[in-house]
Amino acid sequence: MKISFALASLGLAALPLLASGPPARAEVKVEDRVLVPTSKAERRAVPFTDVHLTDNFWAPKEKIYRQNTIPNNWKYLQQEIEDNEIAAGWKHIERGSDTPWNQANLFKALETVAYALPQEPNPELQTKLDGIIKAVAGAQQPNGYINALITVRHMTPWTNLDGQHEGFVAGHMIEAAVAHYQATGQRSFLNVAMKMADHIYQHFIVEKNPGVCGHAELELALVRLYRVTGEKKYLQLAQNWIERRGHPLPGQNAASRSYFMDHLPIRAVPEVTGHAVRTVYYLTGVADVAAETGDVGLAQAARRLWNDATRRKMYVVGSVGSQEKDEGFGPDYDLPNSGYNESCAACGMLNWAQSMWVLDGESSSIDVLERGLYNAVLHGLSLDGTTSYYRNPLSDANSVRNNVWVCCPPNLSRTLMRVPGYLYAQTTRDIYVNLFASSTCSIKLANTRVQLAQETNYPWDGQIKITVKPDKPAPFALRLRIPGWCPNSTLELNGKPILKPAMEKGYAVLLRLWRAGDVVELKLPMPVQRIQANPKVLEDKGQVALQRGPIVYGFEALDNAGRVDVQLAREAGFTTQARPDLLGGVTTISGRAGDGRSLTAIPFYALANREPSKQAVWMAQQGQLEQPKAWPDEQMRTPVDSWEPASLSNRMNHHRGSIPRHGCSGPPDAAVAAAQQHNH
């Protein structure tokens, strides 16, 4: 059966994807191809290999993931490793049926290891990784196909696109191989990934086989492979798979295809639907392809669906996928506190957020990334790194963490080990500070290499010091994200206040001639804020959630006399306390209930790390909540009535030295303006 829709309907008329004959470079062996890292996207993340964490928040957690999580992962992957050894001919064991996506768990674990290696040399771990990669390479078939589970169970490849998850598994293999190449410079795993990508191109593009995998993932992975190899056909294949969705094959019901985001062509999809993980992975690929090709229609679709997901279908902690029936997105504002919220969907939101940032450069995308990272994703993995949650409801009662190895544990570990790669980004002439953590990094700009050293106790404190050290004096822009949660902020350069820095897309922009030893200090006040849900979120009417800095808080019965069904006082008298002895070191919030009793809140991510206990994020609020005359198109806001000094709105207070987040009414600071004039 051939694809029944015209090439023009795919939006690929300009791409020679369905031409007959082999790809032009098919005769060149993968091993002999010259890699030419390529990206047409203006912005890109600073590689994780060039960032070193030195902080008291993430660095200890990354150590736990290296020492506890990675060894724990191996316990659940022996069969997946052995499948590759069987497929390679090293062992002879008959296999029965198995979950079709299990090889993806192995590749997610290998990707976790790849991120760990630059953080701390580990010869034993490197040797183990090399052995597994050798088995995976041995399992690859002569035509390039690689999926050991399919091979050893004598299943026919590409015959059950919805059920066999081959594109999904291939995508995770490619992501792991790219990370391994970036971490080590070795091509052993990357060559396997390129052969598989060549095979998929041959099968679907050259041979014109119809359909697309039911679980998206390959699309975004192919873009990553394109960026490190420069092979244009990988980008073309990614776009082809994106455009194939929305054209159900004969016999497929278009309505039921919404589960796979396969019910409408991407350019016509009005809202996010279906299985949250599938959808988020798919739309990450859409944003990536749009950034690389400049395709206006894809970019518009990515923005439209991003706004739908983050403004009307995302929880205050950054989770998505509220519906249990399909692990999926529900209608607008249908966000029950018992919602499903799969950990993999939260991980996927971080990838999508970063891809949206690469596409548009808006700090609001990093706001979403930060919200999900510090809350939804961290909550998924226990503080000791050995157990996890598949589901992450905002209210819970005595649900213990476990090791359900369906998909989430290695997805959480690879996502959390990527943290160094989220901190900084660049163009050829700009440096972006996207997240805040004590760290050092090295960035190559067009005119110089720059070393940055960031010092902060974030997320517990908002004072940030950045020392800039270019190899030689050079003009460039340092762009500092002003978080959306911050009510006001101040900025100093070499000890002098910058009263009106230029603001672009939520970034304070310092364009000047930089010299070694220049120091920037950013202060982000962290009041306790009460977050109010849109009235359309019916379950949260009359309730508030607490947030301080990027951290959303929750109440656990263990800290509150066995109860979480209480009411916050209107004048709650919030105070904060640093507790290095509690839950790996946290800052707690204390306040009063309506009946006068004392209440304690801890970070949402730290809930369920002690004995079983009831938990809640949204709490009833004493008194009538003030409603705005018209709610903006968003799911939540900070109440605009300041009930007490510690409860501030997100509106910018334009007092002396405060930075308005989205622009200035007056000229930029004189010192910076002079530097800009000098640079030009």
Description:
The chain folds into three domains: about 10-420, Alpha/alpha barrel (Glycosyltransferase); about 425-485 and about 490-525 and about 655-680, Maltose phosphorylase, domain 3, CATH 2.60.420; about 530-635, no CATH class. Strands 3, 15, 16, 17, 18, 19, 20, 21, 22, 23 and 24 form an eleven-stranded mixed sheet that branches. Strands 2-6-7-8-14-10-11 form a seven-stranded antiparallel sheet. Residues about 1-25, about 640-655 and about 660-680 have low confidence and may be disordered. The chain has helices at about 60-75, 80-85, 100-115, 125-140, 150, 165-185, 190-205, 220-230, 230-245, 275-295, 295-310, 345-360, 365-380, 410-415, 420-425, 670-680; strands at about 45, 50-55, 395, 425, 430-435, 440-445, 450-455, 465-470, 475-480, 490-495, 495, 500-505, 505-515, 520-525, 530-535, 545-550, 550-555, 565-570, 575-580, 585-590, 600-605, 615, 620, 635. The protein starts with about 45 loop residues before the first strand and ends with a helix. The protein has 16 helices and 24 strands. Helices cover about 35% and strands about 15% of the residues. The chain is an alpha+beta fold.
Q: Helices and strands in order, then pairings?
A:
Blueprint: E1 44-45, E2 51-53, H1 58-75, H2 78-87, H3 102-116, H4 123-139, H5 148-152, H6 166-184, H7 188-206, H8 218-229, H9 232-244, H10 276-293, H11 296-312, H12 343-360, H13 363-380, E3 396-397, H14 408-417, H15 420-423, E4 424-426, E5 430-433, E6 439-444, E7 449-456, E8 463-470, E9 474-481, E10 490-493, E11 496-497, E12 502-504, E13 507-514, E14 518-523, E15 528-533, E16 543-548, E17 551-556, E18 567-568, E19 575-579, E20 586-592, E21 598-603, E22 614-616, E23 619-621, E24 636-637, H16 670-679
Parallel strand pairs: 5-9, 18-23
Antiparallel strand pairs: 1-4, 2-6, 3-22, 4-5, 6-7, 7-8, 8-14, 9-13, 10-11, 10-14, 12-13, 15-16, 15-24, 16-17, 16-23, 17-21, 17-22, 19-20, 20-21
